[in-house]
TrEMBL record, chain A:
EC number(s) on file: 2.5.1.58, 2.5.1.59
Species this protein is from: Dendrobium nobile
Keyword rRNA processing among UniProt keywords: no
Domain of life, source organism: Eukaryota
UniProt GO cellular component terms: CAAX-protein geranylgeranyltransferase complex; protein farnesyltransferase complex
Name listed for the protein in its UniProt record: Protein farnesyltransferase/geranylgeranyltransferase type-1 subunit alpha
Gene3D superfamilies: Protein prenylyltransferase
Entry similarity comment: Belongs to the protein prenyltransferase subunit alpha family.
Catalytic activity from the UniProt record: geranylgeranyl diphosphate + L-cysteinyl-[protein] = S-geranylgeranyl-L-cysteinyl-[protein] + diphosphate; L-cysteinyl-[protein] + (2E,6E)-farnesyl diphosphate = S-(2E,6E)-farnesyl-L-cysteinyl-[protein] + diphosphate
From TrEMBL, chain B:
Similarity field: Belongs to the protein prenyltransferase subunit beta family.
Quaternary structure annotation from Swiss-Prot or TrEMBL: Heterodimer of FTA and FTB.
Protein name: Protein farnesyltransferase subunit beta
Alphabetically ordered keywords of this record: Metal-binding, Prenyltransferase, Repeat, Transferase, Zinc
Function: Catalyzes the transfer of a farnesyl moiety from farnesyl diphosphate to a cysteine at the fourth position from the C-terminus of several proteins. The beta subunit is responsible for peptide-binding.
SUPFAM superfamilies reported for this sequence: Terpenoid cyclases/Protein prenyltransferases
Biological source species: Dendrobium nobile (Orchid)
One example GO MF annotation: protein farnesyltransferase activity
Cofactor note: Binds 1 zinc ion per subunit.
Top-level taxon in the UniProt lineage: Eukaryota
Occurrences of domain Prenyltransferase alpha-alpha toroid (ranges): 71-458
């Protein structure tokens, strides 16, 4: 930090800026939330205001925005003005992409930077698709759940293409960390949106197997349970017909460990009309040791809620609400 | 009524030790030798939190009371200092100064701390310098108008509440600004040529509703966009295709309520997703398999607080479960003007389902008021547990709040931890402004904050004043 300051030459001492009169910030006589700006920041912003107000779209203005951005990458007005200048001076946008990648690597959780990247990538077109996908990959190597980077990656795929290896990439990330819900979400995005895979209908069967396998190796992992349900979003009749889905619930329930997710999914199946065999009934019965006897005549859905009220105490209010509002056919 | 987690400390400790990522059972050792990044980080947080709760449950009663106390004076001190002076490192928030105003002044209002008239005038004066002549507020004087800072500025002015504060808002210009930020698809962009997302939609609709300038021109297409952002998990994402996220779920849900289209969301899956975000640490996480964070006390807790008043709509959706949501939406499109339509039941008979009338969409100026008048069905989350996380894991004894143990305090987390604390304290209140029963408030009853209007996250009295003020304007 201090070495930056030592090297920093005030604008007032830079000959190329001698024609510009800095514009101070109009904070008023008694501002609230005043920031004790350091001299370098204050002066940079005073010169920025001057070129912003005069509308000067020049190379020196471009350099000035870079200085302002280095001190506060969250200033969207500076970014906005930078785009106006880039267009006006007909700048090389590939250079700009190198610049923004450098800034983004240091500030990967900032809306403005990703918006700027999207603007650039849109202008540069499909030829940068692979580079953009590679860039987000580098971000995910540090933070595999970076929300902005995932949004950017999805936008690149949608707008510029590059779907070829996306499902493999999801598999790769999930092999690293099967609990990475962002990778599960991306997987859902790929199987529903990729023009190369034929859509959800044709991917469903293999994805059910993938999710079931993930569940069996880590039944405490919420992500594949939600993914499994998501594969049948809007199609409950098919959900209840798939024996693999009811089967995985049963299999995990029988272990008597990690029973919250399978109970919750089984409840979902029942609410949509699933007809449980005696095996399901006895698997659930075996869990209700501590549930009061009074509920012995209740339906399976009702029993599931009662069990969940006890084994999932943080959500007891939620399960009791679910219990009192079961669809009439499963009450 | 829920029992306090400290009374049933077995809940806390057994819950934590049988956690999702606790060391594997011996019979499974052969395959879970290495834990993933998610599991390791989760484990670290669980250890820190359970250590804090262990100290609590082992402490004598008077120490427990002390530990669960809200350190009002310290918080006010921290907030007041920020309002008067911020250090040079705050330059990274130089385009967020109306947000700093809102985080601090709203927090003080929650603590029932009134500002000196002089400070109030200074705040109004400062915010008018952030105001763009063509409508909207920027992140500081002379900056481009931005929807998020417009929301922060308007909410600050409403919280200040004086006539001069409310009169300083140029409603006509602001409406023009909102319309300029509207994309042809109906959603909003944050600023001229800026990013389009659910946050932008919420901040635009919230401001329009509050100022009584909400009409069909503004709401048109917003609901369609939000629907596209509800994910397979049940929560709402920032953009179509992205991951369900607590902040966007609150924004999307509140927006749909404000434009009278909330029945179009799949509420059962939304409720399920949000309910599952409260974890063994007692606080909320923002996304599935992410770490707990105090600010989601409001984003997720606030979403469930909103849902307490939507239960009848959710219950109607449950009744019609055998019909898929997609079919329902198709039926809705063909019946936009009818409040009720019939659906075939599996047994061949028909059932009448009543929905909100879609034709009311856009006539939303009274919605904010109507909403808090509807009955409160009781919380679907563990509100006492949430208070315990906020007071013990997010509260900083020197003043302010933080994300989680090991992090540092900031004004953003102070605002949303306090807002989440208020929401959980009032989650058992029958009406919006009636005081909660004593056992709904964890710690001494003096911990009780002011109630908020959950759609705008404004202190309720401040909302009433603004509503009255703007309702007479056309
Ligand atoms: Zn946070």
């Amino acid at each position: 930090m201090s070495s930056d300051e030592d090297e920093w030459v005030p604008f007032s001492r830079r000959p190329e800026w001698s024609d510009v009169k800095p514009v101070p910030q109009d904070d008023g006589p008694h501002p609230v939330v005043p920031i004790a700006y350091r001299a370098d920041f204050r002066e940079t912003m005073d010169y920025f205001r001057a070129v912003y107000l005069s509308g000067e779209r020049s190379h020196r203005a471009l350099n000035l925005t870079a200085e302002a951005i280095s001190m506060n990458p969250g200033n969207y007005t500076v970014w906005y003005f930078r785009r106006l200048v880039l267009e006006a001076v007909d700048a090389d946008l590939n250079d700009e992409m190198e610049y923004i990648n450098c800034v983004a690597s240091k500030n990967s959780k900032n809306y403005q930077i990703w918006h700027h990247k999207r603007w650039l990538a849109e202008k540069l077109g499909p030829e940068v698709a692979q580079k953009e996908l590679e860039f987000t990959k580098r971000i995910f190597a540090i933070d595999a759940k970076n929300y902005h980077a995932w949004s950017h990656r999805q936008w690149v795929l949608d707008a510029l293409g590059g779907w070829q290896n996306e499902l493999d990439y999801c598999t790769e990330l999930l092999e690293d960390d099967i609990f990475n819900n962002s990778a599960w979400n991306q997987r859902y995005f790929v199987i529903t949106r990729s023009p190369l895979l034929g859509g959800l209908q044709s991917m469903r069967e293999s994805e059910v197997s993938y999710a079931v396998e993930a569940i069996l190796s880590n039944p405490e992992n919420e992500s594949p349970w939600r993914y499994l349900r998501g594969l049948y979003k809007g199609d409950p009749n098919l959900l209840i017909c798939n024996n693999q889905i009811s089967g995985v619930c049963l299999q995990v329930l029988k272990t008597k460990h990690n029973i919250i997710f399978p109970l919750s999914l089984l409840l979902e199946l029942l609410c949509h009309g699933f007809q449980p065999s005696t095996e399901f009934v006895s698997a659930v019965e075996a869990l209700r040791t501590s549930v009061p006897e009074s509920s012995s005549t209740s339906s399976l859905a009702n029993t599931i809620c009662s069990v969940l009220e006890i084994v999932d105490p943080i959500r007891s209010n939620y399960w009791s609400w679910r219990r009192s509002h079961l669809p009439s056919q499963v009450c | 009524m829920e029992s306090s987690p400290i009374d049933s400390s077995s809940n806390a400790s057994s819950g934590l030790s049988s956690s999702t990522s606790s060391p594997p059972h011996s019979d499974r050792d052969h395959r879970q030798i290495t834990l993933t990044v998610t599991q390791l980080e989760q484990l670290k947080v669980e250890e820190k939190v359970s250590e804090i709760y262990r100290i609590l449950s082992g402490a004598p009663a008077h120490t427990q009371t002390l530990m669960l106390e809200l350190w009002r004076d310290k918080h006010i001190e921290f907030l007041t200092r920020g309002l008067n002076q911020l250090g040079p490192t705050y330059r990274v928030l130089d385009a967020n100064r109306p947000w700093l105003c809102y985080w601090i002044i709203h927090s003080m209002a929650l603590l029932r701390e009134s500002l000196d008239i002089e400070v109030e005038n200074n705040a109004v004066d400062f915010l008018s310098r952030c105001k763009d002549i063509n409508g909207g507020y920027g992140g500081g004087p002379g900056q481009l108008p931005h929807l998020a800072t417009t929301y922060a500025a308007v909410n600050t002015l409403v919280t200040l509440g004086s006539n001069s504060a409310l009169l300083s808002i140029n409603r006509e210009a602001l409406r023009e600004f909102l319309l300029r930020m509207k994309d042809f698809c109906g959603a909003f962009r944050m600023h001229h040529t800026g990013e389009m997302d659910v946050r932008a939609c919420y901040t635009a609709i919230s401001v329009a509703s509050l100022l009584n300038i909400l009409d069909f021109e503004i709401t048109k297409g917003v609901g369609d966009y939000i629907l596209r952002c509800q994910t397979y998990e049940g929560g709402i994402a920032g953009e179509p295709g992205s991951e369900a996220h607590g902040g966007y779920t609150f924004c999307g849900l509140a927006t749909m309520i404000l434009i009278n289209e909330v029945h179009r969301l799949d509420l059962t899956s939304l409720i399920d997703w949000v309910a599952f975000r409260q974890g063994l640490e007692f606080g909320f996480q923002g996304r599935t398999n992410k770490l707990v964070d105090g600010c989601y006390s409001f984003w997720q807790g606030g979403s469930l607080f909103l849902i307490q008043r939507l239960l009848s709509i959710a219950e109607n959706q449950i009744k019609s479960l055998p019909m898929s949501i997609e079919q329902e939406q198709l039926s809705m499109e063909g019946n936009v003007d009818s409040a009720a339509f019939t659906v075939p039941k599996p047994d061949g008979s028909q059932r009448q389902i009543h929905y909100f009338e879609n034709k009311d969409a856009g006539k939303g100026s009274a919605t904010g008021l109507d909403f808090i008048r509807t009955t409160n069905g009781g919380p679907l989350f563990h509100s006492i547990a949430l208070q315990q996380y906020i007071l013990l894991c997010s509260q900083v004894l020197e003043g302010g709040f933080k994300d989680k143990p090991g992090k540092v305090r900031d004004h953003y987390h102070s605002c949303y931890c306090l807002s989440g604390l208020s929401v959980s304290q009032y989650s058992f209140s029958k009406s919006a402004d009636s005081p909660p029963p004593p056992n709904a408030v964890l710690g001494p009853y003096s911990n009780l904050l002011e109630p908020v209007h959950p759609l705008y996250n404004l202190v309720l009295d401040k909302y009433y004043k603004a509503h009255e003020f703007f309702s007479v304007m056309s």
